[in-house]
Amino acid sequence: xxxxxxxxxxxxxxxxxxxxxxxxxxxxxxxxxxxxxxxxxxxxxxxxxxxxxxxxxxxxxxxxxxxxxxxxxxxxxxxxxxxxxxxxxxxxxxxxxxxxxxxxxxxxxxxxxxxxxxxxxx
Length: 122
Hints:
Blueprint: H1 13-52, H2 58-71, E1 81-86, E2 89-102, E3 105-118
Antiparallel strand pairs: 1-2, 2-3
Helix pairs in contact: 1-2
């Protein structure tokens, strides 16, 4: 009894392409997530300093933010961070870039943080 089987010639190309896309997504996440977490932590720290830094002069707040940025290994310097108190408000600005290196490509991620809050005396 001879039986003829017909099999469709499903290739593995679709699976390979999805695995490549998955690998690229994992690589991007591996590089980008730690940077995003660090920068978000710095921004939250700046907001906290603006809320509760009423008794500190702007230079002390600036030093504190620079120390925190150094701990987080972010390229914030004295030149690209400004802290000023205008009346009963405090304004902080920083602008920096972090290069993310991928095989064959370097993406420069720009950050521009600005915090402008009223000063609360506790």
